[in-house]
Amino acid sequence: MKTMLRPGQTPFYGDSRHTHGIARSGCFNTREVQELTMYGNTMQRLFDGMLEPENDEEVRFIADCQTSDESSLYSVRLWKKYLNTLEKLKQHHSFSRSERYNKPELFSDGYFKEAVG
């Protein structure tokens, strides 16, 4: 990636929700993993406001991350893709019954009572 973003001081392996790292998450291709590993700490610190921008591209990165519009910067699109994977990891699917099926009004017609009971 041709960028003016400075590389991170340490490799970026992702959030703790990526238990085996971003490389094994299945969400990113090899190129994206390499770029996130190299620039991810800088992107995260710029996004969180913990790092001051040093050049125009870093200023634009911060501005584009704060909007919901599509950016022409590849680094912004990659960072938003990373953030979207974190949102998907928050979703939990289970085979257990949810609380909504325990409401009595759902069982009033007898159909669910026979199917569940």
Automatic annotation (TrEMBL):
Mention any Pfam family matching this sequence.
Answer: DUF413
The UniProt entry, under InterPro entries, shows: DUF413
Q: Give the similarity note.
A: Belongs to the MaoP family.
Q: What is this protein called?
A: Macrodomain Ori protein
Q: Which organism is it from?
A: Thalassomonas actiniarum
